[in-house]
Amino acid sequence: MSQTLFDAIDRYIREHLLAAESDLDNALQKSTAAGLPEINVAPNQGKLLYVLARAMGVKKVLEIGTLAGYSTIWLARALAPDGRVITLELDPKHADVARENVSNAGVGTLIDIRVGAALETLPRLEAEGVGPFCLTFIDADKVNIPSYFEWAVKLSRPGSLIVVDNVVRQGALVNEHSTDPDVIGVRRLHELIRNDPRVSATTIQTVGSKGHDGLTFAVVN
Questions:
Q1: Which parts of 34-109 fold into alpha helices (H)?
Q2: Which among 151, 89, 157 is positioned nearest to 126, based on CA atoms?
Q3: Which of 84, 104, 149, 188 has the most CB atoms in a 10 Å sphere around its CB?
Q4: pLDDT tens-place string over residues 47-66
């Protein structure tokens, strides 16, 4: 098995199951042109978020980690009537690119981009009473993933879904001796979930254009 094969399969999936989406393609192009890191979810993973959100009929979505707004657009397009996405982004430059992208995609009025450190913004969301959220997508720095997950549970209701991206780290998840802060973060997440009766969860390995990684899915009990 090789990365060439994984890339070819992702292309096949995109050609057969994902319609051409100029707004989404443009969002990726603008992200690259602005010099943002190329760490957006893959198109088929964006469609997965869309499918999950549509199946659940979500009205309130929380996203931690906006980047250029690519996954944000997918989530916004899946909202039930009168739905809304609140997305948190640390970097003002990233937020500016995301605002342009979501506006160009025609979903800007459905999305509230909050700029600042998520661990400072999340308590404000609780104070505002904007939850509970039906779905939370966590795709931000891995060091703080356990804390983001704690907040996601707190801002959810029974039946809410929490999805965490990039949790396998090219297989480094199983390296108990790793000193990589990102690996330590995702290992701490799994330890947290294992001992948390509030959620039922699993992690799925993925291979594709993004290499060997994985997603954690947790439903709030």
A1: 43-56, 70-77, 92-104
A2: 151
A3: 149
A4: 999 999 999 999 999 999 99
Q: What is the CATH number of the domain that holds 102?
A: 3.40.50.150
Q: Which of 182, 192, 201 is nearest to 139 (CA)?
A: 182
User: Tokens in use for 19?
Assistant: 């319609």
Q: State which H helix or E strand residue 160 sits in.
A: strand 156-165
Could you count the other beta carbons within 10 Å of the beta carbon of residue 157? 11
Q: Could you tell me if 68 and 30 are in contact, meaning their C-beta atoms sit under 8 angstroms apart?
A: yes
Distance of alpha carbon 114 from the chain centroid: 15
Q: Given pLDDT bands bounded at 50, 70 and 90, which one contains residue 23? A: confident
Domain region containing 25: 3-220
**217 sits in which H/E element:** strand 211-220
Residue 153 zone, left/alpha/beta (φ > 0; ψ -120 to 50; rest): alpha
Mean residue pLDDT of the chain comes to 95
3-state secondary structure of 120: helix
Which strands form 133-138's sheet, in the order they lie side by side?
Answer: 111-115, 84-89, 60-64, 133-138, 156-165, 211-220, 199-208
